[in-house]
Structure formats: structure tokens, C-alpha cells
Amino acid sequence: MSQPDIVKDFPRVAPDLVAQAARFQPAIFSDINGRRGALHGRIQALRPRMKVAGPAFTVEVRPGDNLMIHAAIALAKPGDVLVIDGKGDQTSALMGTIMMTACRQLGLAGVVMDGAVRDSLEIDEMDYPVFSVGTNPNGPTKNNGGRIGHPISIGGVTVHPGDFVIGDGDGVVVVEREVLPGLLPLAEHKVQAEAKRIAQIKEGNTSASWLTASLIAAGVLKQGETL
């Protein structure tokens, strides 16, 4: 039996895991998860300082239509991140100040959309986390159905409802809900390893220990040669 177009509830990554994971950069999660999960770079923070972390509340809309986003705002829970498959459309904005104010008032953690927004200066003043493919002053229609709480494709990544979403000035990474707990120790280790390497570089050890072997493997250097 097929699911209804609107799935009102689903398992979410737990709040304590969100709090732990939010300490790390999206880049860390990409590195430790096989360099997977990063949305296409067209989906960027509206302002570089903006950060978001939380479970995905997934929405699929027709290009230029935001009917289902209004429904999603009515159904999403505090802490959720609206993750919207807007088909990459930039001909009109899917959300603006009014909807973003409602999201913030309801305690939603932020918005990630493969589509455009408007009222960007006001959203900047609100300091509400928004990630989009840019801006457009044209308003949307409110006529077409879509889906809520289903897996979506956004920025080349499949996102299931309840997955962990994290974004900063670099972009957005999505981690499967079931995978996240096992990645947290790896994230901590990665951060410590990078800090150690940066300290070594500052002390003058700038050479990468792996470089020569990789150049030989790539056929750039012959066995026994060095730079």
C-alpha cells in the first residue's frame, strides 16, 4: 500500500545527538562519511555566518509553487530543518520574510531549499538560518500539490525524513539518521587529528608525509624519485 502524500510523523535523529553533532563542521562529516552527503554547491547559506543543524523535515514542491511548504510549516516540530526539493528553480522565490518569521516563531531550526528566496535583507536582520540557490523578487503560486515526509532528492543527495542535516558557510551535508551515532567518535578523532597537523605545520613541518607515495602511485614520479 502506498503512503499518503503527507506523512505527518516519522523517526527523527534524537535531540541529544543533534546537540553533539552540531559542534562539528559539515566538512568533518563529509570526510568521515566517505566524502558523501554534501549538497551541490549551488545551495548556499544566505549569509556566510549562518549555521543550521537538526532533523530533516522533507518537502517536495512543483517549481515555483509553495503550497506544500505552508502545509509543512503547520506540521513540522520544533528543532526540525525544512528541507525542500524545489527542483533548483530560480524563476521565483518559494519563501520570504512572512514564512521565515513563522518558522522561527515555531522553533524550526532553519530552512534548506533547492530553490530561491526573497526578502533577503530582512532575513539577514532576523539572523534566521536559510540555505538556498539564491534570491528572486518574484513570488510563488500556491496551486500545486506535492509531498511531505517522503524521501527527496536535493542537490544530488537523497534525504530521508528524520536524517541529520548540518550547514554552514561551506554548504550543507546530510547524514543518514541510522549512521550518525557511529560517526560522532570519528568526528571527534578527525578534529583532534586536524588540530595536531595544523600545529605541526605552524612549527615548520609543512611537508605532507603521504605525497611522494601518491605521486609515485599516480605515475608522476618514478620509484625512488622525490620532489
Automatic annotation (TrEMBL):
Keywords per UniProt: Magnesium, Metal-binding
Binding site for Mg(2+): D119
Binding positions for substrate per the UniProt entry: G96, T97, I98, M99, R118
Magnesium keyword on record: yes
Cofactor(s) of this protein: Mg(2+); a divalent metal cation
InterPro entries, per the entry: RraA/RraA-like (IPR005493), RraA/RraA-like_sf (IPR036704)
Molecular function per GO: metal ion binding
Key word Chaperone present: no
Pfam families linked to this entry: RraA-like (PF03737)
PANTHER family: 4-HYDROXY-4-METHYL-2-OXOGLUTARATE ALDOLASE 3-RELATED
Name assigned to this protein: Putative 4-hydroxy-4-methyl-2-oxoglutarate aldolase
Species assigned in the record: Hydrogenophaga pseudoflava
